[in-house]
């Protein structure tokens, strides 16, 4: 379990670093304009946000307290998979325990 949690944490940190680099060197407006204009960019965004929705469903079913679920779900569209990685690192042991027969 610890290996999975470390891998997820490292993935989240790597993604966070890539986001920081993109903010420092990239042009968010130009990239956004390309994403919305190109069909594959639209597919990528649809895939991303559908994944956020799927994870939000898992979080809503997993978290016993509605406010705690909202705390994790509401930032997903804004903080993305970095936020998802934080939730997974914290919830993975209990999630695995509940899923085992």
- The whole-angstrom Rg is 16 Å
Number of domains: 1
Order of helices and strands: HHHHH
* % residues in beta strands: under 5%
Judging from the principal axes of the Cα atoms, what is the shape? globular
Task: Please describe the biggest sheet, giving its number of strands, its sense, and whether it closes into a barrel.
Answer: none
Task: Find the structural class using helix and strand composition.
Answer: mainly alpha
* Cα-to-Cα separation, first versus last residue: 17 Å
Number of distinct helices: 5
Helix percent reads over 70%
Low-confidence stretches: none
Transmembrane segments: 40-62, 69-92
Protein name: DUF2834 domain-containing protein
Keywords: Membrane, Transmembrane, Transmembrane helix
Characterise the protein shown here.
89% of the residues lie in helices and 0% in strands. The protein has 101 residues and is mainly alpha-helical. It has one domain (2-99). Helix 3 (39-62) packs antiparallel against helix 4 (66-73). The mean pLDDT is 95. Keywords: Membrane, Transmembrane, Transmembrane helix. It comes from Hyphobacterium lacteum. This is DUF2834 domain-containing protein.
């Amino acid at each position: 379990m610890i290996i999975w949690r470390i891998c997820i944490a490292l993935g989240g940190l790597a993604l966070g670093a890539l986001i920081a680099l993109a903010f420092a060197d990239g042009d968010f407006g130009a990239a956004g304009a390309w994403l919305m204009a190109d069909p594959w960019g639209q597919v990528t965004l649809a895939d991303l946000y559908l994944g956020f929705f799927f994870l939000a469903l898992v979080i809503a079913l997993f978290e016993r307290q509605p406010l705690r679920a909202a705390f994790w779900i509401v930032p997903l569209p804004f903080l993305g998979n970095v936020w998802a990685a934080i939730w997974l690192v914290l919830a993975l042991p209990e999630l695995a325990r509940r899923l085992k027969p």
